[in-house]
Design a protein that fits this description.
This protein has helices at about 45-55, 80-85, 110-115, and strands spanning about 35-40, 75. With about 120 residues, the chain is an alpha+beta fold. A two-stranded antiparallel ribbon has the order 1-2. InterPro entries: DUF2237. This is DUF2237 family protein. It comes from Actinomycetospora rhizophila. Pfam families: DUF2237.
């Protein structure tokens, strides 16, 4: 059973749009997930702009991907969330749906400071 950063069972992140490396709605990870898509974030306009400036435009629709809008939940790469944190544009995080492996990149205190409102 996968664990979240709080030590309990990993909750789903989003089924609309369907997120996760395995496209199962969960920020689960495994050996084939080189990007470590473990942070369940509620994306903001500032973060989406930041991500696009880094070469990953998450607002652009693609086959089987509608493109993200501010407020959508999405499993982000742990390293990209950390990069956004360092740049001052980290989006809010759903801790219950953020995989424990995220703690290899960021401290729990930083995640808690960016906890998404209920």
């Amino acid at each position: 059973m996968a664990r979240n950063v709080l030590g309990s069972e990993l909750a789903d992140c989003s089924h609309d749009p369907v997120t996760g490396f395995y496209r199962d709605g969960c920020c689960e990870t495994g050996p084939d997930d080189a990007g470590v898509h473990t942070v369940c974030a509620r994306v903001t306009a500032e973060f989406l702009s930041f991500s696009a400036s880094r070469g990953n435009d998450l607002t652009r629709p693609a086959p089987q991907f509608p493109g993200l809008q501010p407020g959508d939940r999405w499993c982000l790469c742990a390293s990209r969330w950390k990069e956004a944190l360092d740049a001052g544009v980290a989006p809010p995080v759903v801790l219950e749906a953020t995989h424990a492996r995220t703690l290899e990149w960021v401290d729990l205190a930083d995640l808690e400071a960016h906890r998404a409102p209920e």
